[in-house]
Design brief:
It contains eleven helices and 14 strands. Strands 1, 2, 3, 4, 5 and 6 form a six-stranded antiparallel β-sheet that branches. It has a six-stranded mixed β-sheet with strand order 12-13-11-10-8-14.
């Protein structure tokens, strides 16, 4: 829920006023309460001290009349609940309630009052639940006064005090107790509390009213600024603030007006620039479209040039591969002609031989036709349409075209293709061109023969980081390794082998297009080619092709096939 600035300011000021008023009220009430209590204790102590001073003679002479009159004089004082004079044994000699005379109190308050050698003030709650101050003051006299008196008044148990008056020791001969009620004081405190609460509420109300006016004075121009800002945000720049105050709000209004004028001027300039830019963009877009068309044609020509270069390398091998079946076709055709040129007509055995010769001719002819079709399909231009393709099938078709060249070069091919690989999105003809280039490059690296190992596998959840391809992606891939046991690639050349026209072959033996074209094709398939090589031990080219989202991932059982 959003709250307005006015609500927040009002709430903040109100809370501040209430907190300050409440804190001040608590302080005043606490101070007033403590002041009342202090004054009551002082007055009670003064009354009890005066009573103890006057009771000294009455206790010495054991005059009940004197003691009774002293207590009676205290009884009329405000807040006095009781007053009593007791001997050192704690027995009441005189009390404001005559029925208590002769009583000896044994409660805790009384025992502590009896034991006190100095004035003692104790707070307790009476039977009616009212708080009461009990003030006890010892009655002391000179020891010689005791000696002048009669032993009848004092027993030997009277204890001597260390205090002295003019060098003469003082002796405690009794004590007085005065009970003061806090009820009247509590009523006064409650009255003061009510007064303070009323004043607090009044001050708070005045503060809230003043805050409301203050907030309205502050927030109203801000609301106007907000409204004008919203209009500007909607594109209406014809906004002008009329606030003419000399404070920060007035300065803000002037800045707003200047900003509005600057925005109008800037929008006009931008509109003019946009019209000019739109015209230039149209012109530039036409140029870019033409450049893109030419670049696409150049790319296609480059791919085709790489394909033709591979075709040049395949030509001799295909010629040799076609030579054997064509020679067989020619020989068996001549043999059939000889059989049918014999006289008399061919017998059943000759016809049976002729039939087997025709079957051989048919098989070899189909073989030649298949090789030529593969070669033609590989050589023709391919479209850019991607379909679901089986990578294992593409590898096998590629080997069918190049197998004869590998045999003549004394190169053994170890083929390990994983079962149940998912299909990928790709162009079969372009991918065949990539594998053809990788196999022919491996053949060149092994002039004295060797082994090529081709493996396909499934990699799931792999994080692929390849600096040359600037990729950092995690996903599922069909991975193909083409490993040879050839000469390897030097450390200084590994980083450049995918550059156009870069080649490690001797002059006239390579165009330098094979790997660069292969790299571009795999990049168009959203994949990458990586290479690991060691001089004298061979190279391994790895092709990573992503599995499209939702593609079914099969189980990799693996099956080894040798060619």
């Amino acid at each position: 829920m959003k709250y307005s600035l006015g609500f927040k300011l009002t709430l903040g000021f109100v809370v501040a006023v209430l907190l300050i008023s409440s804190a001040l009220s608590f302080y005043l009430l606490g101070h007033e309460n403590e002041l009342f209590r202090t004054e009551l204790r002082k007055r009670g102590l003064a009354l009890a001290t005066n009573l103890a001073f006057n009771a000294e003679y009455g206790i010495l002479v054991k005059n009940d009349y004197i003691l009774t009159e002293l207590v009676r004089g205290i009884k009329g004082e405000d807040d006095v609940l009781y007053a009593m004079i007791l001997n050192v044994e704690g027995r009441v000699l005189s009390h404001t309630d005559p029925t208590h005379k002769g009583t000896r109190y044994i409660d805790q308050i009384s025992l502590q009052a009896r034991a006190a050698e100095k004035p003692l003030i104790q707070l307790y709650t009476d039977a009616h639940g009212e708080p009461v101050y009990d003030i006890a003051v010892p009655v002391k006299t000179f020891r010689d006064n005791i000696e002048k008196g009669s032993v009848l008044l004092f027993e030997e148990s009277v204890s001597a005090d260390e205090e002295t008056r003019g060098g003469t020791p003082l002796v405690k001969i009794g004590f007085v107790r005065l009970g003061l009620s806090l009820k009247r004081m509590s009523m006064a405190i409650q009255k003061a509390r009510n007064t303070v609460i009323f004043i607090t509420l009044f001050v708070s109300a005045m503060g809230i009213i003043a805050t409301a006016f203050f907030v309205r004075f502050i927030v109203r121009p801000i609301k106007e600024l907000l409204r004008a800002t919203e209009q500007i945000a909607q594109g209406n720049l014809e906004q002008h603030m009329t606030i003419a105050s000399g404070d920060e709000i007035g300065e803000l209004a002037r800045s707003f007006n200047k900003m509005s004028q600057d925005l109008k001027r800037s929008r006009a300039e931008i509109e003019e620039y946009s019209r000019t830019l739109e015209k230039k963009v149209r012109e530039r877009t036409g140029e870019l479209e033409e450049s893109y068309r030419q670049l696409k044609e150049t790319h296609e020509q480059l791919v085709q040039a790489g394909k033709m270069a591979a075709m040049g390398q395949l030509g001799a091998g295909v010629a040799h591969e076609l030579n054997n079946p064509l020679g067989g076709i020619l020989g068996f055709s001549q043999r059939i002609l000889e059989l049918f040129s014999q006289r008399p007509a061919p017998d059943a055995e000759a016809l049976t031989k002729s039939r087997s010769y025709v079957e051989i001719i048919e098989r070899e002819t189909k073989r030649c036709k298949e090789i030529v079709e593969k070669l033609l399909r590989f050589s023709r231009r391919s479209d850019e349409v991607f379909h679901e393709v089986d990578i294992n099938h593409i590898i096998q078709e590629t080997l069918l075209v190049v197998s004869h060249q590998l045999e003549r070069a004394h190169i053994r091919c170890n083929l390990t293709l994983a079962d149940s690989l998912p299909f990928i999105k790709g162009n079969a003809n372009q991918l065949q061109q990539v594998f053809t280039n990788l196999i022919l490059n491996a053949k060149k690296a092994m002039p004295d023969g060797g082994e090529i190992s081709i493996r396909s596998r499934l990699e799931t959840g792999q994080l692929l980081r390849v600096e040359v391809a600037q990729l950092d992606t995690k996903g599922n891939y069909v991975v193909i390794d083409v490993e040879d046991t050839g000469m390897g690639i030097g450390a200084g050349d590994v980083g450049r082998i995918f550059e156009p026209f870069f080649t490690t072959s001797s002059p006239g033996e390579g165009t330098g297009l094979g790997l660069s074209v292969s790299y571009a094709i795999i990049r168009d398939h959203s994949g990458v080619i990586t290479v690991e090589s060691e001089v004298g031990r061979g190279s391994t080219f790895t092709v990573w092709l992503p599995i499209p989202a939702g593609g079914q991932i099969g189980t990799d059982h693996g099956e080894a096939v040798s060619a």
